[in-house]
Amino acid sequence: MREIIRLIVVLSLICGVSASALQTVNAQLTPIIEKQIDLYIRGPALQALFGKPAESLLANKILVPVLDQVLPVFYDAEGVQPPRIAIEVTGTGGYDGDIVLMVGIDLQSNQLLGLEIIQHNETPGVGARIESESFRKQFKNLPLSTMPALKKNGGKVDGISGATYSSSAVINGTDSAIKIIQNNNTQIIDLIRTQMQKMNND
User: Fold this and answer.
1) I need a surface site. Which of 1, 7, 16, 64 has the fewest CB within 10 A?
2) For the chain, which residues make up each domain, given as ranges?
3) Per-10-residue mean pLDDT, the chain, length 202
């Protein structure tokens, strides 16, 4: 009986030490992983949306709490007030899972700058055509006053033939981005101003 208790104690200690070590490693790696995601995944999307080198935009990042998640928002405030921003959102309902988008918004003109697809698992040659310029350019300069919608639903966006789920997921993500901006506009601008002041003071 004593041997069994000893084994239980030893195993419990091993599990505790292992869990603690994993937490420490995770805490150390998380900022490094996030930085790599910014540079190699979000960076190209930001460069396409703002027409500026990604390196000049990645530092302009705030984290916005929305319901049960925290969303990354990037901004380009050079000479423009209110600024142009890009928010990462998830479009639900894709054919093979959710689609992650970077949606650009011009807060001065209240129009979409456009959108970039940064992660998806849609079928090559079919749903994957959401990445095509011909599909994505339809979102440029759309007013925020009207939620984007597919033409079959009374909107202005031509869906991709044979890829209704993929097209709808992109619409869902874009609509979500617009709603988040509309509902959190003041908070986002305040966070940007605070960060800009801090950066100028540094």
Assistant:
1) 1
2) 45-201
3) 66 66 55 68 93 90 91 83 91 95 94 96 95 96 94 94 96 96 92 87 77
